[in-house]
Fold:
Amino acid sequence: MNTDAKKTALRMIPYGLYILTADDGKGNVSAATVNWVTQTAFAPPLVAVAVKTDAHGYGIIKSSGHFALNMLGKDHKGLAFTFFKPTEVKDGKLSGSPYHKGTTGAPLLDDAPAAVECRVTKIVEEGDHHVIVGEVVEAHLNKPPTGRPDTAILELKDLGDNVFYGG
Ligand SMILES: Cc1cc2nc3c(=O)[nH]c(=O)nc-3n(C[C@H](O)[C@H](O)[C@H](O)COP(=O)(O)O)c2cc1C
Structure:
């Protein structure tokens, strides 16, 4: 295989940016910016997220059986960069961002325009990221978008010419 072609072809896939959060109820809370996310079914509403197996949040999602996807708005570049780094839980905030618990226990960032809470239904254990399939069991709209909802999301390409995850 031509590895340069593989890298460039895979980097042609467009991505939105989300903060993936989880809380195991035993004091372990995680939040990470992710882009490998998609909806995979209408009924039930399913999403799939690829999660790094050595990420802090991977075990927390697995043991709690729940996670939240906090959608990032166009003005949330700072949040995206904050959660590329390990999360600090201090003063009831996640790396300085206020949050509250959703009905599943998963953390919901107060600043996110929208979020979905999911129950883990399957984990596909292949490669260095495992595909976590979740059923959307709660949805929150803090700031309803005025136009097409997918124009409101912060996209990977909004972070400049040098930020990629894929290839
Ligand atoms: C542009 C970008 C996209 C990312 N997308 C994902 C992703 O889809 N899945 C994932 O597990 N990690 C992804 N990460 C890595 C996480 O943001 C990072 O591992 C995490 O926030 C750091 O915390 P950790 O201590 O859990 O590793 C991405 C990183 C970058 C820079």
User: Anything to note?
Assistant: The first helix runs from residue 3 to 10. DSSP finds three helices and eleven strands in the chain. Residues 32-36, 50-52, 55-57, 83-86, 129, 156, 163, 165 surround flavin mononucleotide (CB under 6 Å).
